[in-house]
Amino acid sequence: MTATEPARPDLPPRSRGVIALLEENCTVCMLCARECPDWCIYIESHKETVPAPEGGRPRVRNVLDRFAIDFSLCMYCGICVEVCPYDALFWSPEFGYPEAGIAALTHERDRLREWMWTVPPPPAHGPGAPLPREAQAAGPRADPAGQPG
Amino acid sequence: MTPAEVLAEAGRLLPGSRGTAETGVAGAAPAETVTLDVPRQDWLAALAFARDVAGCDFFDWLTAVDEQDHGFAIVVHLYSLDSGQHLLVRTLVPREDPELPSATGLFGGARWAERETHEMFGVFFDGHPGLAPLLLPEGFEGHPLRKDFPLAARAAQEWPGAREPGERQASERSRRRLVPPGVPEGWPPA
Amino acid sequence: MAAVDLPSPGRGSGMATAEPPAAAGPIAAGGFSLRVFDAGLACCAVEVAAALRRCAGLLTDDGLGADDGLGANAGPAVDAGTGPVHVLVVAGTVTDKLAPLVVAAYRDLPEPRRVLSFGACSNSGGPYWDSYCVTKGADQIVPVDVYVPGCPPRPEALIHGLRLLRGMGEQR
Predict the structure, then answer these.
(1) I want to staple B159 with a disulfide (CB 3.0 to 4.6 A). Which of B65, B180, C104, C109 is the partner?
(2) Do the Cβ atoms of B165 and A62 come within 8 Å?
(3) Alpha helices, DSSP H only, in C32-131?
(4) What is the ipTM score, two decimals?
């Protein structure tokens, strides 16, 4: 522990400190808001019609207006991160974000994106672990992380 | 006593009871747990049998289960420190008349358990020395652990998941269930 | 058998005095010392206990460098002459039955006093916000100065919260 950042412990991988949002992956399926046991995810969105390209037809897509997580309610269970089908939510180990006002504990889209830059890469698989599905689909190439020893 | 012996003795001494012995009940107990279902009038006799004949002198917990139309099932978990035998004694009281003799005469540990069961379910324990509320604050109305006691906070608060994707407010036309878990259908009453 | 009916929770001798004996002791930093009184009501109490045991040294003068951002410019509005600031750390679920005692603990703290809400339950009711017997946040009953989020927050998060509190000085 240094004098400048004394309260910075050695955090294990997959530490749950705060939840980060990668907005590009979010399709506004609302699964996280529905599954959250605390009801602490607030999502507002609207539909937009994308004009038809050549030979195509117009598509309707959801546009995210508001995505907020109320960390004063959040119990860090991780159900939202697990249930998101598009990997838009990530765990970050950052934990030091106290506030003087409780409203400031509701993090909006921009602050949730700021947390994305603190998300660590996923820890390597253990020795002898099966390859992840993406690597299996890519063909029977050897994956170095899956090699024992 | 082995579970089989407990069942045999129960069948002999408590003719109105039904007993089973199976593993996997009562938490992680590896041995077989004996479950005795007795009618209400045999309640104290069953507890005395458990303590004196089966040797289950350790009172673990007493609670109730809201079986809705069937009434309230009162369950007691007893344990024998000598033989390691787990015993569940159960009875059923009707909803209109939820009354049962108090077990405090046999097990002192039932005092607080019966107080809690009384305030949470409304079951009256006849003979209890002081059936005052234990955990709920003064002035609390109702019996919270009954199944018809709704979570008012959930019904009053707008559920963020009630919105459909692409909408700003909860839709009236959604086919999906819009009432969040924990709130009965049709609550709050209009 | 002689059954003893235990009394309902009430204020014992430890809580009614002006010098709370359970406090962690003064945490002095740059003349602004905090005397932390831990109202450990539930699981968060374990993290606060770990923090006060393990990390209290981090808030002393020895543990902080001159360039840690909370140096002289933090301007402690309370100088060493006025004595410690008493901080009530509410750590854990505040049930409706226990709420009057939390208020009593706050009232028994001498001035200057602050409240730090530790964990989701005392911030807003947390996972039990929909319960029939939980006060939805300690700020319903006492004025809270700093909220530390987490369920439970790390012990080091308490240190971050206390540093924020110290940096706020006299402001409320």
Answers:
(1) B180
(2) yes
(3) 44-54, 99-108, 120-124
(4) 0.80
Reduced to 3 states (helix: H, G, I; strand: E, B; else coil), residue C99 is: helix
CA-CA-CA-CA torsion for B150, B152, B158, B164, nearest 10 degrees?
0
Q: In this structure, are residues A58 and A86 in contact, taking their beta carbons and an 8 Å threshold?
A: no
Residues 120-159 of chain B whose Cβ lies under 8 A from any Cβ of chain A: 157, 159
B111/C contact by beta carbon, under 8 A: yes
**pLDDT tens-place string over residues C92-131:** 999 999 999 999 999 999 888 899 999 999 999 999 998 9
Q: Per the domain annotation, does A26 fall within a domain?
A: yes
| Highest CATH level, class, for C35-65+85-131+153-172 | alpha beta
CA distance C127 to chain A (A): 6
Share of chain B above pLDDT 70, in %: 84
Q: Which amino acid is at B91?
A: T
* Minimal Cβ distance to C3: which of B108, B136, B137: B108
* CATH number reported for the structural domain that contains residue A106 in this entry: 3.30.70.3270
Architecture of the B3-126 domain: 2-Layer Sandwich (3.30)
Average pLDDT over chain A, rounded to an integer: 85
Is B160 in contact with A62 (Cβ distance < 8 A)? no
For B186, counting Cβ atoms within 10 Å of its Cβ (0-12 exposed, 13-18 middle, 19+ buried), the class is exposed
Residue spans of alpha helices (H) in B90-151 = 110-121
Domain boundaries, chain B: 3-126, 150-190
Instruction: Confirm whether A130 is domain-assigned.
Output: no
Window 5-64 of B: residues touching A by CB (8 A cutoff) are: none
Neighbours of chain A (3+ CB pairs under 8 A): B, C
**A129 domain residue, yes or no:** no
pLDDT of residue C75: 33
CA distance B159 to B174: 14
All structural domains of chain C with their residue ranges: 35-65+85-131+153-172
To the nearest whole Å, the CA of C172 is away from the closest chain B CA by 30
Query: Angle formed by the axes of helices C155-168 and C44-54, to 10°?
Result: 70
pLDDT category at A140 given cuts 50, 70, 90 is: low
Phi, psi dihedrals of residue C62, rounded to the nearest 5°: -65, -30
**Which of A34, A39, A62 shows the shortest C-beta gap to B166?**
A62
B160 contact residues in A (CB cutoff 8 A): 33-34, 36, 39, 41-43
Which of C125, C56, C63 shows the shortest CA–CA distance to C95?
Answer: C125
Establish if B149 touches chain C: CB-CB under 8 angstroms: yes
Between A7, A37, A72, which is nearest C147 by CB?
Answer: A72
pTM: 0.79
Q: Do A74 and C120 touch (CB under 8 A)?
A: yes
Strand A41-50 to A59-70 pairing: antiparallel
Residue A42 lies in a domain: yes
| C146/A99 Cβ within 8 A | yes
Instruction: Give the residue numbers spanning the domain of A45.
Output: 18-50+60-122
